[in-house]
Amino acid sequence: MISVTGGKYKGLKLHTVPGRSTRPTTSIVRKAIFDVVDVEGKDFLDLFCGSCIVSIEAISRGARKVVAVDISTRSVGVCKKNQGKIKENFEVVKSDVMKYLKKCERRFDVIFMDPPYDMDIIPDVLDLILKQNIMKENGIIIVEKRKGKKILIPESLSVLKEKHYGDTEVLILKRKKGEAGTSPFGGCGRD
Q: Residue 119 carries which DSSP code?
């Protein structure tokens, strides 16, 4: 089990997916992210959510709406178990992340992604988030990845912060000033 690091559910013990198929975001990394990124009153998207630990951390710290996406039946089952431990509801979606983003009906203030370290999917996910205009105008994207693994970041994004924690690297990305989304209507769905 792993504990929530802050907010109203601080200390709450959560289940993790058994085995080595997933790698939960460590408490040090979660605390560091949420000490820098204010999610209070914001819409939060958790991609490759695993056990939904980051989603519940966001809810604990005041996120308004949380959507967690993972393709694994096992992960979604653990998410539902963890969901039952808190009073707020959040949406858990069993889907391939790319398929979910292509059909997205919302926009988010904060998008967190932590794909398996051996997947080379981060650039494709970033491109799709931008193409579908899923990130709100002043939104940010948080990427958790293996330290030292080079990724191509789209030109329209800039790195606000880059932090290292053991073998983990966290990037906080924001759209560059003057870079508009591709949709004249502001996203893949209307707010």
A: -
